[in-house]
Amino acid sequence: MIPVQAASPVSGGGNSSNAVSSAGNGTTDLPDAEPDDLTPEQLAAQWEEEKPPAAGALANVGSSLVVIGVGVGAVVLSVAMGLGTPSAPQPGLWPFMISCVMVVLGLFQLIMGRRNRDAEKFTRMSVAPLTGLVTLAAMVALMPIAGFELPALVLCIIWMRYLGGETWRSTLVVSAVVVAAFYGIFVTALNTSIPHLF
Amino acid sequence: MDFLNPVINGFAVVLEPMNLLYCLIGVVIGMLIGVLPGLGPAATIAILLPLTYNVEPVTAIIMLAGIFYGAQYGGTITSVLLRLPGEASSVVTVFDGYQMAKQGRAGTALGLASIGSFVGGTAAIIGLTFLAPIVASFALDFGPAEYTALALLGILLVATISSGSKTKALIAAALGLLLATVGRDIFTGENRFTFGSLELADGIDFVPIAMGIFGLGEILYNLEERHRAAKAPSAVANVWPSRGDLKQASGAIGRGSVLGFFLGILPGGGATIASMASYAMEKKRAKQPERFGKGAPEGVAGPETANNAAATSSFIPLLTLGIPANATMALMFGALLIQGVTPGPQLVEQDPGLFWGVVNSMYIGNILLLIMSLPLVGIFVKILRVRAAILAPITALITLLGAYTINNSMFDVTLVVVFGIVGYLMKKFGFEPGPLVLAFVLGSLLESSLRRALLVFGGDPLGFFSRPISATLLIVFVLVAALPGIRSGLAKRKATIPADTAATEIKEKV
């Protein structure tokens, strides 16, 4: 692993650290950026505030409808496979039972879960996972054609520079080292058949 | 002492150089991911599943188990030094551990936690050694009816005890059961839900599902969680607690061991619940409860002991009944199935080398972890400075390339990415991924037991109530299913005094 001394530049607010390797004098030299005399309850409340905002009722309706949709689809397909009787079941009986349970749970969630606040809102931060996903999908698509090295290098650079906010220097150095290490492990040492260019 | 012979032979298995090496690799990885906030043990085990293909089953499980209990040790470090729990099971350690660090006793807190972890882990292994064969011999006469009831109860318990919405957890479990039916029906040979795809005809492999939902899903989700990024701590010295500290904490360590051991056995229990229960118990028992939250050593020692004891004892239901008690154990179950070993009551008799090899490896692992967390703790504190931004692409690439090596096919890689999206969206919309993976693993066992049992009973579902064990289990099932209704009724009455419930609320949400 690569030890880097400073704290993450992307940490929110007053979190960026001033505790750069002080001498080990038996104590931990933590920055008092936040009031430290919090009771467990206050601390938990603070964590609660830091969480991404909760999504509204629409998220619950949406996810419940997806569940009901999948359930109904599975019910239809299971019936088409044939149900049979409990003593002589056809292939569709068991999936039919599960998908019925799923539809019922979905309806229950649709009605009873309206006030639940356990779903998270998609915020501007959600662009990061989306970008990550696109690069992953692109890598899966390109690997059979171009080998894994160049897509992996691009993926590393995008994730470190744009999603992680690393400096260009550390991004390029670390990415190159990472890809070289993967080449060494998967191609040279383990001799796997991963598509590779070189 | 015939009973002890296989136990002693198990040590011979552990001491093979290959197994020792994998034990070391496992606990080091566990300690590392415990220290690094972000990836939990379940995600790490899922990502590393392809590593286990080319080794002996016992070696594979020794390593995976090491990751699991190693993470319990490592999670403490960030809780104490940074007030950031590295693992869910170390959340309560933050309350007193960080206060101790502020008072200049970070070393003492870490030292007490690792000694407690060691004691708890070791006590649980000894308990496991004696209890597991008894449970297994009891379960030997289990027929399909009992297995149906047991699997149903296991899935329900894991879904209801998980944090967050119970209904959503049950939906996730249903989805897992449904995914398990994809492919050829084992009784009739007919294809189900394959949509004409040849690749799906053999069913969906467990590994891409686990890697996608636990691994990639969590990596993508973490890309969004910027505010939890770690700040770099300084060095820690003097990790050896004084005799007075040890004396003060010894009661908490003893109680934590017992409490953790029993909570770990329960389905849906495990390390997180054990640590919270231990903290609550210590606070209740203390003569001056107001010291808690201000740096009480018992508040660190108790929970840390309990989470390790629970992590160890949660192997009992897996290795003796073949029913994983939590999501991480579901991954172990899957890893064993890949190796052609079906965990169950016959495992102790038929494969004592594997059973006792895994159990005894935990002694070695705990000793290694004690060494790493007392004299070598400084090294792991330094690792805290590795940034999440650098780790994320590395873990993502390990996942993709690892998925390829399972069958040398891009189809598996595509599946991993697809299930990664599913896992991310599930987390985003408040669906726990654990029950899905657990239900998926148990899906085919549940279906085949159910169908066999119904054949025996001539198609009469009431037949399940004609056998005492399956009847009892099903009655418990109904009770557990009805419990949320009763509870929410009670909660409404309690809503006027929110202060009381605040403490439990917190724990469930973090």
The unreliable regions of chain A are 1-35
SS elements, strand count of chain A: 0
Give the C-alpha Rg of chain A.
25 Å
Structural class of chain B: mainly alpha
Transmembrane segments (chain B): 20-49, 109-139, 145-162, 169-187, 258-281, 318-341, 361-381, 410-426, 469-486
Domain DUF112 (chain B): 20-438
Keywords (chain B): Membrane, Transmembrane, Transmembrane helix
Protein name (chain B): DUF112 domain-containing protein
Key features of this structure:
heterodimer, A: 198 residues, mainly alpha, 6 helices, flat, disordered N terminus, B: 510 residues, two-stranded antiparallel sheet, 23 helices, 73% helix, disordered C terminus
Describe what this molecule looks like in 3D.
- The complex is a heterodimer of chains A (198) and B (510).
- Chain A has 198 residues and is mainly alpha-helical.
- Among the domains of chain A are: 57-115; 124-189, no CATH class.
- Helices cover 57% and strands 0% of the residues of chain A.
- Chain A contains six helices and no strands.
- The longest helix of chain A has 25 residues, at 57-81.
- The two termini of chain A are 25 Å apart.
- Chain B has one domain.
- Chain B is an all-alpha fold.
- Helices cover 73% and strands 1% of the residues of chain B.
- Residues 497-510 of chain B have low confidence and may be disordered.
- The interface between A and B is large, with 108 and 97 residues.
- Chain B: Keywords: Membrane, Transmembrane, Transmembrane helix.
- Chain B: It comes from Arthrobacter globiformis (strain ATCC 8010 / DSM 20124 / JCM 1332 / NBRC 12137 / NCIMB 8907 / NRRL B-2979 / 168).
- Chain B: Residues 20-438 form the DUF112 domain.
